[in-house]
Amino acid sequence: MTKPSENSVIIIGAGHNGLVCAIYLSIAGYKVRVLEAQDIAGGGAVTSEFAAGFKISGLAHLFHGLDPEILKDIGMQSADFELGPEIKTIALAANGNHLLIGKDSVTGAGLSEEDKQAYKEFKQEYYDFAKALKPLLLNKPPRLKNMDKADKFTFAKMGWGLRFGLGVDAMREFLRVGGINIYDVLNEKIENSHLKGAISVDAVMGHHMGPRTPTTVLTYLTRLNGEAQGNLSAPKNGMGRVTELLVNYAESKGVEIQCGATVKKILIDEGKATGVELVSGEQYKAPLIVSNADAKSTFLKMIDVCELDAMFAKRINTTRTHGSVAKFHFALDGLPEFVGLEASDLGNRMLIAPDMRYVEHAFNHSKYKEFSTEPVIEIIFPSVHDDSLAPPGRHVMSVLATFAPYNLKNGWDEQERRQFTNVVLKSIDEYAPGITSKIIASELVTPIDIENKFKISGGHWHHGEMTIDQSFMMRPIHGAAQYNTPIEGLFLCGAAAHPGGGITGIPGRNAAKRISSLDRAG
Amino acid sequence: MPSTIIQDINQHNFHEVLKPTPFHPRVDHDCLTKNWMDWNGYLTARTYDTLAAEYFAIRSSCSVMDLTPMGKYRINGPDANKFLNRLVTRDVSMLRPQRVSYVVMCNDEGKVLDDATIFHLNEGDYRLCCQHHQLDWLMISSLGMDVSIKEETHDIAALAVQGPTSASALKLAGIDEIGQLKPYDILHTQLHGFEVMVSRTGYTGDLGYELWTSPDNALSMWDAIFEVKQKGFYDIRTIGLSALEMVRIEAGFILPGDDFNTAETAIRADRVRSPYEVGLGWVVNLDKPNFTGKRALLDEKKKPIKRRLLRLEVSGNKAPQDSFLYAGKGGKRIGTIMTQIWSPILKANLAMADVEFAGGSQPSEIWAEIYYQKELEWRVSWAKGKVWNKPFWSHPRRSASPPDSY
Questions:
Q1: Structure pTM?
Q2: Is there a domain that residue A462 lies in?
């Protein structure tokens, strides 16, 4: 083993945030090596074959594109990603009176003109709120005590944006709703319960929250941040395409990416990170170690707990990281028929969430470690836009079903898996009668499977709940919320860090910036 | 299990606000003042008959104090040594079996939670004793470690036998090997057929021992000691917490919770204290592997110290109780008297004082503003303080080995 150069960096995990961080650091002049446990790079953003000839995005299946700020910084174009057409949302109704929901307009039988207008105004108002939060997302979260210059600047920018960007009235409204729930907000604004049900899904999907859970406005705004930056779409060849482009780009910038390299532990000497040891026993040394893994994996699995202070370890251990979503992959012998929908409509994202009570009741089960008997379901057919994913004439269906708690009372054994699959198919069958007859093969990915396959503690998409107490300067916990950690030379760059989950690349970007600025400061 | 909880509730006697210790029949018999107080939920005597007599028993003969209420935790398992060394600021990785070490526990911010003694009972088997209940912190600290922690506060009865004649008295009581014990040594022995653990430890600054046994043998242990008195060999007196307070201040020992707020009980950010600030820098080892609070203490060490708990002798004969301290007569306020006593042996007012160190240095003068009563009329006076870097009182017999026989 050669002596590491002073500017070498090891990044643990080649998910999108790890790759974005690698590209930034490489451009900044660091010598970057990315170690990935799986056989392919990408983390949750991969395309995998789940049945012969049928491919699907492994975890995330739709996205809004990487943050434009990032693309600009690193010199990539959004066109590179070959994103498919804009995907709208269809809120399914059993009677065929579906709603077609776009970014700022909604249509559908039974929808009043008032509601159409109300939706438009609501979205505009909330885009503005999301915009006001943006300076916070694109910077390291400012500390409240011992602020440095950058922290003060972030606060000033956000304060300015709130006060003068939004104006006094909107700011007051923003401060009113910032910590409350989407249920109350939507009831204030919109009459149509079907529409409210569909909107509320965006606030709770992926979280252990129902529409009435406090801070669901915040999770909704996070979602809108994505919406504001680009259309919802599926990249050609699935999410693996995004990774592939990032990998190629990173490698062209000199980043070394090594797959099948599972990090067993982070080596620490006198409180400083000095390298990593792989399961194979191989060691790599570097003065900078950046973990794209979740906080529990990083601190409690890869580090000897004695290197951490007791309360720090305890606080990491008590972060809420139980995933709530199960993902289904179905190989279909042809497109199913949905009542009241044309085949061409199936390129959209379909939601089963008839109203907010339905969503809240679905959530209730997960509080008691049960899966929802009437789950909230999101369905897409990626093969409608992309014929590379299934053999000719056949299709793939990607389904997100919540709530499917990580800590299911009886555990996710074969029987529970079969029962939940039946529950989900029964729900879909109400809108697409006879769909089960078209199923050739299927795969269920529960939070437990997500944990095992993607090495995400608790199988939580976002590497931890994005409630206000686990956000900003408290993500994953205070003391490790500015990408650097109590271990000198060890940084976080994944969704466990601010601003959290979603295929945005922002945590990776912010971490890279933090690393170079701390390094410059010595 | 819920069933055991219910059982505990049923066993609890709500008329019994404070729990009697296993020595209670004897303690209650000897305690003429019935001046009880609460120590960790136990019924504890503040004084037995006369404070002065109790004090002089410690300093010039032999005293016995019931220290059952002391928090006691049994720690063992494969990671026990690793667990303890990460828990405390001192390096205890090499603590030999049958030895005791005085330690300090800090939180992540490097602020003192409690001081404690670690008894390495037998290879890999430890007992941690501390002033306050610390089970919660021990459980927090055990995350990710293969260690067993058992609360044994109520399962071990303990007596402190302290004073110049303590070794001689205990020898007569039947502990033949008492003379072999060096300071901080542990001895497992038999007394009248039951097991007793003896450690040469204490809180008085004098020659002294602590005896540990099961609650079933508590009264026999007590009687074995007092038999020496009945036979007329040595005077042995029961002492309460008030006498202990006098000797511990003389000996310069701190009392967490009284001399300063312990970290997990403080609400205000400026009330917590680091080991350096309470004069326990000597038990902090920044060269050992990581321990809870190490990073914070490394940082603190780089900066000038902000305040110190000082041993302060206050001139004159007026008790500087709760006094404010000033940089000069009527000058800037720089601190507070935390605890104070009149020392009969030194004929002086002795105190533990929390004092600000502007610019990292000790104030050149410290004055106490003392309020006192004369026939129910309040008056104020000023007295100058003198800082003691060493304990106010110490005696070579504390560490003489073998102990002198008196």
A1: 0.94
A2: no
